[in-house]
Amino acid sequence: MFLKSIDLFGFKSFAEKSHIQFTDGISALIGPNGCGKSNVVDAVKWVLGEQATKSLRAERMEDIIFNGTDTRKPLNVAEVTLTLENDGVLPLDFPEITIRRRLFRSGESEYFVNGAPVKLRDVRELFYDTGIGKTAYSIMEQGKIDQILSTRPEDRRALFEEAAGITRYKMRGREADRKLERTEANMHEVDSVLTEVRRSYDTLKRQAEKTTSYRALREEQFNLEVDLQVARLLQYREQEEQFQERSGTARQERDNLKQAIDGLNEKLESELSRVNSMESRLVEVQKRLYGLELEKSSRTERIALIRNQQAQLEDQIEAERGRLKGLSRKAEEQEQAAATAERSEEETRLQISEVDKTVATVQDRIARSQERQKEAREQIRQAEQTITANERSVTECQKELRAVTDELVGALDTKLKESGYSSAERARHEETLKAALDQMEITLRGRREALQDHLRLGGVEERRAAAEQAFSALEEALGALSEAVERYQGAIPRFLDDFLAPEGTMTRKRSLDDNVEKLQEANRGLREKIRDLNEEIQALQQTIDTERENLEQMKLNRVQLENRAGALLEAARRHRREMEETRRHQKELETRIEGDQRRARELEGQTVALQKEHDDLARQEQELRQELKRLEQDIAGNNKSLQAEEEKLRRSMQALAQAQSKLEGLQVKLAEKRTEVRGLYDSFSERHGRDLREFEGRQPSFEGDQKQLRDEMTRVRGELKELGSVNLMAVEEFAEVSDRYEFLSGQLADLRTARDDLVRVTAEIRRESQQLFVETYNRVRKNFHTIFRRLFGGGRAELRLIDPDNVLDSGIDILVQPPGKKLESITLLSGGERSLTAVALLFATFMVRPAPFTLLDEIDAALDEHNVGRFVNMLHEFSEQSQFIVITHNKKTVAGANTLLGVTMQESGVSQIVALRIDGQDGKQGQKGKPGQDETDDRAQAGDQNDQEPQLALDDTKE
Ligand SMILES: Nc1ncnc2c1ncn2[C@@H]1O[C@H](COP(=O)(O)OP(=O)(O)OP(=O)(O)O)[C@@H](O)[C@H]1O
């Protein structure tokens, strides 16, 4: 058998339908990291029934479905199909077998073998002991190597069991164990039920025997009772017939008496009817008399009643007249009250109109104040406008003033320069002028004092001379002063006068200054006016507020007055209504008085009529009393003859009563007998559920009279009592339990046989498994050592059963000794050594039972060039017996393959298969021979190290 092809769709990175065609020999699956090579191995494991997601490198099973890329959407189904060529390895009669597994994202999973749906278990069983399968060695990955070498020795057994072909046995063994367990549990269950049933069986058996005796006695008792009851029945029937005969005779006697009585009764009835009619008339007359008396007394009573009513009516009329007076007084009072209320209402209305007038005045005052406020505000507005205009003019004047000042300063400067004015010179001239003035003052004071002295002391001449001297000194001083003034004037520039001229700059400046001053003064006045106006507005507002408050108060008063007027009007109306009501009552009362008076007159009329009727009735009474007397005499005469006839009838009636009671006595006895007969039937059917009539004609079971029958019954009853309590259903229950007992006993026996068979089968399976295991183990052990030495170029490898006495459960230890090293546990080996050891164990197993195809996923990864050569050579040797699909990155391994299959990811995330070289189909097939050369070298080297390299065959134990 070999793996022909794998078809993948939607499995992991195989988003497209991919077909991988394999050939016999060695196929290398190559491609860059992550392109999906190991996914192919996962796909094979998955089809073969792998359920452990970890082993498939997934978290959940649905992770194996293509989950999309940047450009592709995820798929919802994954499907992988293996096509195998079957040369009899698989237990199916087909040359080609396809195994398919499909998984939907919903979790639904399907398996098909050659297109037919099967269960997972079927797929697994198909590959038992073929070396293929999830636990087998046909799929060897790095992880598996670790598993073989590192995990617990017990876990390694699977490899050997698969090689020994005992997986199927083991499964059967487990199945048999499970069955055995189930059978024993069933046996236990059946046995406990049987024990229980057995207990009931014994009890019920005893009870059933007792019940049988009981039933026989009960039947005897029943027959005796039937005999007794039938005897009684016959006795009752006889008595019944006798009573019937006697009843007939008594009935005849009674009927004769009845006839005689009927004749007497007829006669009596006719006489009685005559007396009765007289008595009826008598009663009638009596009734009439009684009626007349009643009518008479009724008339008397009615007359008295009417008289009474008349008196009451008169009292009532009197009282009503009094009430009428009271009502008219009340009406007058109400009218007065209404008039008073109407007057008050009118006064209040007048007050309201006064208030309205005041309100109008106040409102007018408020309006005027508001008008004044408005005017004041308008004046303020105008003043403010004027202020603004003035301020604008002031600004303009100031602007002009600045210009004039600038002009003035400029002109002054120019003129000063032009005039050559010097302040120092002017100061000097001022000093000179001042000195001349001082000199003149001194001269003036000196001359005046001298003149005064001459005037006081001197003569005229002296006075004249002094005056002349004084004047000439003054003229001299004046000359000097005029000179100084002239010089000073010469020093002062003349242009200032031009400035001060009416059209001069200074005059303009002054006029502007005046203007500004006037405008500012006007604004000050206006602002004052505004302040005054605002104060006036405020004062007006206060007045308005006060007026408004007054107004509100007045309005409030008005509302109160309105309310009062309304209340008064309402009161007046109420008084008027009440007055009308009183008047109406007055009228009603008057009408009632009139009615009462009318009624009093009517009552008087009635009294007269009733008195007349009373007198008529007294006359009729007199006539009837006479008739009554006559009738009483006639009735007394007739009653005497009736009494004689009645005596005769009484005697006949006595005789009839005796005859009747005799007949009734007989009929009671007859009915009693009949009841007794019915009682017999009923009590019999009640007690036995059967009809006594069934037994009436039958032969008695016992010959004897009723006493003997009763004695016999007593005997049977005594025997029944002796039996004690009886389970009435015991016989039927016993039959049931007995059936069950036999059935369960049979079942227990069957289960015992089945258990013995299963024990035997299990023992056989264990024996066979053990034998096969030991054989295989020994062969693998031997092969392991040989291949280890070949791969390592020497050394030693050993397998050891941890529990040799229990080979079927024992773990297997691996001990290796690479050349030149100590014998050590595999945990101490290097990565490469570990790989080589695993490969050695794999091939050692292969030699015993080669797997039809094997997938090796990068198990050469840790090997150096030299060891890869050895590994490839070994592959070649085994490729005769098995098909190898090798995933590798190693060139040497690639070169050793017959077929090269490329896995690429041209589209990112989507794996694609490319057939690169198929052995025999392209020119590179010769490369297959290359690794052989290495092998020669290796062998040469190995030969150097080891005395002799064993020639490898399929199984060296066969050599
Ligand atoms: N459900 C899935 N859908 C799409 N792609 C998946 C899915 N599961 C795994 N892959 C992709 O498969 C690739 C891994 O493939 P695989 O392990 O087979 O690579 P490889 O060729 O064996 O790489 P290496 O040589 O490194 O061992 C990853 O890129 C991963 O994203």
Automatic annotation (TrEMBL):
Pfam families: SMC_N. Residues 577-596 have a biased composition (Basic and acidic residues). The lineage of its organism: Bacteria, Pseudomonadati, Spirochaetota, Spirochaetia, Spirochaetales. The gene is smc. GO terms for molecular function: ATP binding; ATP hydrolysis activity; DNA binding. Contains large globular domains required for ATP hydrolysis at each terminus and a third globular domain forming a flexible hinge near the middle of the molecule. These domains are separated by coiled-coil structures. CDD domains: ABC_SMC_barmotin (cd03278). ATP binds at P32, N33, G34, C35, G36, K37, S38, N39. This is Chromosome partition protein Smc.
